[in-house]
Amino acid sequence: MWQTFARTGITHLMSISGLHITMFAGLAYALINWLWRRSAKLPLRLPAQHAAAAGGFLAAFLYCLLAGFAVPAQRTLYMLGVVAAARLWGREVAASRVLLLALLLVLLLDSWAVLAAGFWLSFGAVALLFHIGSGRLGPAHWLIEWGRAQWAVTLGMLPALLALFQQFSLVSPLANAVAIPVVSLVITPLVLAGALPFLDPLLLLAHLLTTWLMAFIDWLAGLPLAMWQQAAPPPWAVLLALAGGVWLLLPRGFPARWLGLLAFLPLLTVVPPRPAPGEAEVTVLDVGQGLAIHVQTATHDLLFDAGPAFSADADSGNRIIAPYLRAMGVRRLDLLVISHADKDHEGGAASVLAALPVTILKSSLPFEHVLSAQPVPQEPCHDGDGWNWDGVRFAMLHPGAEPLSRKTNDVSCVLRVTAGGRSLLLTSDIEAVSETALLERHSAGLRSAAMTVPHHGSRTSSTPEFIAAVAARDVIFPVGYRNHYGHPKQDVVARYVQSGARMHRTDFDGAVAVGLGSGGIVFRHEREERRRYWHARPIELDR
Question: How far apart, in whole angstroms, are the C-alpha atoms of residue 34 and residue 39?
Fold first, then answer.
């Protein structure tokens, strides 16, 4: 289990649980070895070292089961197993082979472990420790060795952390310096001892020390510049930085080790390209049954809706949207639009507001909605509102001045984005009565090259008159895979097929990116660009 302080954003760089498992196995080994030697008959049947090695491995296995058997715990268990087997067979095995055999076992049992961040962080950290421990002239003072290990893991894991999380804690070395010895040498032994009969007060002491430790970690996280955050680096920059880190961590005597630092420059300086002035990049994110759309111009960013909430502590905002924006290098949202008060559209809004600054929040939410209390300037969506960003025109077309009904869907914000003479209509969850009102107010101004299908393809929307007025050549269905609403409805799909529109669906295509500009309108599908071998081919659609 990777020690992650989620409340503070500090990600621990050392696999503490691996150390705990090893400590527990070592204690079991020592106890069994001591007891076994006290017997007159047992050592004649099996040497005490062999019995202790088997017992220590069994203890580590039970600890791993209690810890959840995650990849880092598996790595530790298999490494201990290799060492135990070598002891039983009376053979010596190099540390690098122990790690490689553990890697082989993990992949044989679960080939998809390579998709877990813990796989790369755990094996990478241990490999770095073996790397700096090899080729040294002799043992140094334990404090120097410990500092060298911290330096190696901090520097060597930087490319992986930026590639996986796009952020790195600048105070993590100090956090590690305190947390690792306190947790490993004090708190964990107290907890293990407190599990024994009549030693319950030790658990209270462990809890008190943990509270003090977390207070210290929270204080570190609150320091200015505690976190480095950036866009996701390109793969070539990550590989170059990894090679530079290995070169920089070579033993003294190797020439020009400082050149390894230069290999880190692309990792920290290369940023994703943004649209040119007069162009826009619109991405309909795959958030399941809900809606979240990122609109980016040359210097501005807009988020239209924030997807659904999944549970009390998990939603599209913290699980999908915020990581996506961070990977894109977005540090601030110039505008957040929450179209209406439905959980599949505003469920992740609070997490987005907590993750990054927002200049303005536009919505059609009622005054008593919980988001109204957010400390951000707020404005209502209304027909006639419009603005220009970097040569891209934004026009709010709905809701109008008069309420159409008491349903939240009928006050959904409708936004039209125009760049290079081509428009994309974002319709949210408007229903038939709203479509009729739009036809009355903007009969000649609805025509667009593309649009998101109203209300995820529900039968309450997409009237033939509205489809004909928009006359979109491409339509996007933001729907969840096998959603329980049955969206999009087949008769609604048939209407768009009859209109001649090409269809794009987030449940089949993943995120749908739309490029608007003078060069035309270009569609890209995440699943096509990053297809995996386990992806089932989507049902063929008329495109």
Answer: 9
Could you tell me the end-to-end alpha-carbon distance of the chain, in angstroms, rounded to an integer?
A: 45
pLDDT band at 257 (very low <50, low <70, confident <90, very high): confident
Q: Select from 106, 102, 105 the least CA-distant residue to 79.
A: 102
Nearest-angstrom CA–CA distance, 378 and 362: 6
Maximum CA extent, the chain: 99
Q: Which helix (H) or strand (E) holds 82?
A: helix 71-89
Q: How far, in Å, CA of 97 to CA of 102, rounded?
A: 8
Q: Where in the chain is the domain with CATH 3.60.15.10?
A: 280-529
Residues near 192 by Cβ (< 8 Å), separated by ≥ 6? Answer: 24
- CB within 8 A of 40, min separation 6: which ones? none
- Token pair, residue 294, equals 């990122």
- pLDDT > 70: percent of the chain: 94
Q: The domain 280-529: what is its CATH number?
A: 3.60.15.10
Burial zone of 287 (CB within 10 Å; 0-12 exposed, 13-18 middle, 19+ buried):
buried
Locus of tokens 């150390």: 19
Q: Which residues contact 280 (CB under 8 A, 6 or more apart)?
A: 295, 296, 297, 392, 417, 419, 515, 516, 517
pLDDT of residue 537: 62
Token pair of 478 as six digits: 């933001």
- Round to whole Å and give the CA distance between 50 and 201: 36
Cα separation, 271 vs 296, in Å, equals 15
Helix, strand, coil percentages (3-state) for the chain, rounded to 5, are 50, 15, 35
Altogether, the residues listed in the chain come to a count of 543
CA distances to 280, 286, 290, 376, 472 from 302, rounded to whole Å, are 11, 17, 17, 15, 22
pTM listed for this prediction = 0.83
Pairing mode of beta strands 10-11, 450-452: unpaired
Q: Given CA atoms 186, 188, 191, 195 in this order, what sign does their dihedral have?
A: negative
